[in-house]
Amino acid sequence: MSGALVQVLRSLLGDDAVLTDPEDLVRYEEGWRYGKGRALLVARPGTTAQVAATLAACHGAGVRVVPQGANTGLVGASTPDAGGGMVVLSLERLNRRLEVDPINRTAKVDGGLLLSALNEALKAHGLMFPIDLGADPSIGGMIATNTGGTRLLKYGDVRHNLLGVEVVQADGTVLDAMNQLRKNNTGLDLKQLFVGTSGVLGVITGAVLQVVPVPVQQATALVGCASGEAALLLLRSLERDLADVFTAFEVISAQALKPVFAHHEGLRNPYGAAEPPAYTALVELASTLPAAALDLPGLLEERLGAFLETEAGEAITDVFMGRAEDLWAIRHHVSESLRQEGKVLAFDISVPRSRMAAFTEAARALLASDYPFVRCCDFGHWGDGGTHLNLVWTEAGAPRPASELVPELQQRIYDLAVKDFDGSYSAEHGVGPHNQRFYEAYTPLSVRSVSGALKRHLDPEGILGTTRLD
Amino acid sequence: MSGALVQVLRSLLGDDAVLTDPEDLVRYEEGWRYGKGRALLVARPGTTAQVAATLAACHGAGVRVVPQGANTGLVGASTPDAGGGMVVLSLERLNRRLEVDPINRTAKVDGGLLLSALNEALKAHGLMFPIDLGADPSIGGMIATNTGGTRLLKYGDVRHNLLGVEVVQADGTVLDAMNQLRKNNTGLDLKQLFVGTSGVLGVITGAVLQVVPVPVQQATALVGCASGEAALLLLRSLERDLADVFTAFEVISAQALKPVFAHHEGLRNPYGAAEPPAYTALVELASTLPAAALDLPGLLEERLGAFLETEAGEAITDVFMGRAEDLWAIRHHVSESLRQEGKVLAFDISVPRSRMAAFTEAARALLASDYPFVRCCDFGHWGDGGTHLNLVWTEAGAPRPASELVPELQQRIYDLAVKDFDGSYSAEHGVGPHNQRFYEAYTPLSVRSVSGALKRHLDPEGILGTTRLD
Q1: Domain A2-90 architecture
Q2: What is the pLDDT of residue A1?
Q3: CB B185 to CB A232 under 8 A?
Q4: Is the domain A342-421 a CATH 3.40.830.10 member?
Q5: Cα B347 from chain centroid?
Q6: What ipTM does this complex have?
């Protein structure tokens, strides 16, 4: 059967667009962080019509399919399972459509287009797609994951900047919902079903995105905070006055900060030889307003100074104004520095912002009591309620192997976040096979039931994807 | 059967909460602009549990139900049909929950709470819900309608500011999706199904809303534009630099502007005795930044001056800086002034912003050719791609009665907007019985099919609402 399908796909897509050689398959079979499976073959259609033909052929043959964009996701949703019977539907060649409408302030793109290519084309118009990520994903993958990024505080996530989609259903039917309108209140907003659902309801082949003017100036500072509560009060105070230009509020615990400087001599430690305070906030302002109209660094310095004069300001230990690239470099080296310290168990948690300090304290107390050999090296997007509560330990210091500790720690920390603090086990990475068992543990039955009804309606044979949302 | 249901509901809700006297029913039977029916009775539950009990009782009795918030909608979706067999489920007493979390920058509210009551409570925290409307709707109604408002350009619509919902299904099952998180990427975002679907998939009894800091300063100007294209170029130019503080870009045609001054001597006509230009743009900036940091009126004046110096600026005829309340008063008197001129056929259309001028010209050409007795008095939220392309004529001047002309003109204008200009027949008002036949004419079958599947899943007996989305 596989041979017949290969023939059909080659006749539909051309010989080069169907890969079957095991060596060629490797890079499609393994995910960025999690996920490693075996593919039956890789199909690389170059047009929406070819995506539709590919899906119709697989559907007809009863072969399961996993859509894959740039394969940069962090939950294993874009790689095949271990069975070797799935087709990887790579969208990497579906990247030709790129129409910028500067007056509508939108871009119409193919699903396989890379974020970097989109931003390159937008630059000529002084525009950008404001979802700012470390990786270079495809637009379709960003939609299927509903990525957030570091400027969510100002711009929102992908969902907030998505006007329209083109989706191919499992049986090859094309849904054209390429809405270019900001206002279109005409019943169910169909595109919402495909945002953040890992491609299991349909393959995103096109999108209409709202884009924004590129800021022309920035101001950044690091602010030492004696406690998590102090960081939250700083957030509230700054946001009140600076909301229009407030683009990021990242927080790094002392435990996450110290390894950065230990492993990177080139990065300047603003605290020098002194012990850093409990938390360091990275505050970023950015604006489309010219410096002649608004002195952004001056404004940030003045607002931070004013906060220091308040009662809550007593818990602020330090203020360092700095260049954006220098301060962000510290933030961006956290993950990798922690890996040099030992075994890292990464988390992607969110809680209501007002409960972030209390949640972190509760997690630390739990660890100190039951896992004293574990260091809590938390950092994250506190402005958005997100925290990477990453845990670090050494095998030598642990009483049990990681294979036992990891699932146990995941369950303890997720239970705390989801059940006790109204939080989420996946703030921005999505579900995917990596989070499948947490999805099943924490998702209300009502949501699973509606997801199941949609899955049965849109993909009755269940051929799409490896994540189960029912 | 009706008597038995009344008894059951009185025992569940209390005698006062069930109205059956025809005089008491009147105000629940008639909509704000469209919709007039007859109710079997009105049930006024005061808690989510009572809403659930009411729906379970009606569901069990096979009686249809229409949910009603403040009954301020403009498409007749909150009033019963003419049959006299429907229960009006009024949420007006479900308005007690109102919890503001200033650090999370959210408000948790009951579905029946009025927008004015929410904003009153938020004021103490320097916060507001940024959906700014002429009416005073309930929050549940705003969600079911996905209202936009005059500051959509900066803040988005209700969907953009909604974090969580509590919904009661037709059979009385309560769906608790009161998410307080900005980031929670865990599969299908269930709340999206209830946004803009007129309450036919469930009754919204609670919500978690994202709220924003109240601006501390504003700057407004009227800008005369010789053409619609000139207005669009102005929009693009201002947006490029001013995006962070750009809150509104309204446009009023000369035909819509002149009646305002003709019927309101108290409003100052900036053009005096001169003929106004083809379009007048109302530009508003607002900011949370203090005047000491940003001179907003100075900035607006400087930017408008700079635009006048460009080639596109040659089509700018006038610039009037003015007080916000004076300039908005002109805009807010348009609808009512037109009604004094004759028969008004109101539209709520959107098209891609870049096609707004071309669409309006095409509509004018169509009218001049086939309906020369009709005046096109268009105005609207051009910054959001919205236009109220209102048509005015006098019975004396028309060759045929309005009852013939209205459906014909609707179809001609909607066909033009939807088919030729990728637009929408309902930018912000929703579907409802008033737009039912346009929904059926213009909605892709794929959308209707998914909506039908959701309806069968969530309300298999089909008891909720008067709008059909399948």
Answers
A1: 2-Layer Sandwich (3.30)
A2: 54
A3: no
A4: no
A5: 12
A6: 0.96
